[in-house]
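Morning F.,

Quick status update on the modeling queue. The single chain you submitted on Monday has been processed. Sequence for confirmation:
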Amino acid sequence: MADYLQVTTVADSEEVARRLARSAVSARLAASANVVGPVVSVFWHLGELGDGQEWQVVLKTTSARFAELRDHLLAEHPWENPEISAVQMVAGNTAYFDWLDRTVG
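Structure tokens below.
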């Protein structure tokens, strides 16, 4: 069984988040994406504590496609150093994972 990932990034607007989601799914680097928001974020930036609204993008892919997806998001994201993180999906519906494989394979 292949490894499956949920890859997360954030953007400062719904428009940018949707664009990132659509470009990754269109390129078949992710099978699907959810845009969630706005969410409140608290963070350190340039040595200062900050907070603000962001839109979260959660993309579903395989570990085999992660590097390409990461590179795509880095190239398309307007920020210099965006969050791009992944967590492994360790269990789930077999039919869903089969669909995910077919979609990004």
